[in-house]
Amino acid sequence: MTVSDLFSLPSSAVLIAVFELGWGWIVVITGIFAVIEMLFVKLGIYHQIWWKTLYTSIGLLVFFPFSKAWFRRLNCRHERVLSFFTLLAILFFSRGQMSIIIFQYFASGKVTIKWVEALGVPAFMLRIPMTLYVAILLTILIMVRARWFWKAAAIAGFLTIDLVLFKMHIMQVRTYWHFVYLTVTNVLVLLIGQAFVHLVRKNEVPDTSAS
Predict the structure, then answer these.
(1) Burial of 28 by CB count in 10 Å (0-12 exposed, 13-18 middle, 19+ buried)?
(2) DSSP-based three-state secondary structure for 142
(3) Theoretical Cys-Cys bridge with 46: which of 40, 50, 145, 167, CB 3.0 to 4.6 Å?
(4) What percentage of the chain's residues is helix, strand, coil (to nearest 5)?
(5) Rounded CA gap, 153 and 179, in Å?
(6) Which of these, 182, 177, 82, lies nearest to 139 by C-alpha position?
């Protein structure tokens, strides 16, 4: 599923957006993902707890046209608000997928709050707000063109918060390398954001409508 989230789905969305593919292609591509998911479930590669393949299909039928419209708007006008939320989405999903690799594949730690889990909320859901606050702050720093000192301070601040969560027993780690993994992840996400903004500004067409 990580491969799908990191490569397959984004690549398909880009393909649909760039080539302006219509609903016929959207339905076909959605069907392919649905069939692959059902096959994985049948083979025991992927286990659905509460998720249904129908949810995947509905989500993609919304996601692909939305991505297509978003790309069209972004390609026409570089509005500051649109650029902000585009960058925020890139950083949020990039950091989210990297965190999955750290928490699950490296198995270096986990986040848990007993009273939250008592409400039936899965432990992995707690990583969403943690990822969101990192993405929001980095997006703001990049958009306002903050100096590297402030960006480095933000990275150090994230590490401090992680250490506090560890001391409070909210974050449990199996190895102290976990904090190194998280810090490297935050640096990579920052660099991804910087590269995106640089690319957008490099290819931005000056607005001559006022002249």
Answers:
(1) exposed
(2) helix
(3) 40
(4) 75, 5, 20
(5) 16
(6) 82
Quote the tokens at residue 124: 């992995």
Write out pLDDT tens, residues 28-75. 999 998 898 888 888 877 777 677 888 889 999 998 998 888 877 776
Q: Are 182 and 157 in contact (CB under 8 A)?
A: no
Q: How far apart are CA 30 and CA 13, in angstroms?
A: 11
Half-sphere exposure (CA, 13 Å, Cβ side) for 175?
A: 10
User: How far is Cα 8 from Cα 89, in angstroms, rounded to an integer?
Assistant: 17
Distances 45 to 36, 42, 76, 99, 130 between C-alpha atoms, Å: 11, 8, 42, 21, 28
Q: Structure tokens of 144?
A: 């306002």
CA angle (133 as vertex; 179, 76 as ends), nearest 5: 120
CB 165 within 8 A of CB 171: yes
Per-run averaged pLDDT (10 residues), the chain, 211 residues: 62 83 91 88 75 87 88 70 85 82 64 58 67 92 92 94 83 80 91 84 54 43
SS3 83: helix
What pTM was computed for the model?
Answer: 0.69
> Which CA distances in Å does 54 have to 28, 68, 152?
15, 22, 43
Find residue 173's DSSP bridge partners.
109
Instruction: Report the distance separating Cα 173 and Cα 107, nearest Å.
Output: 9
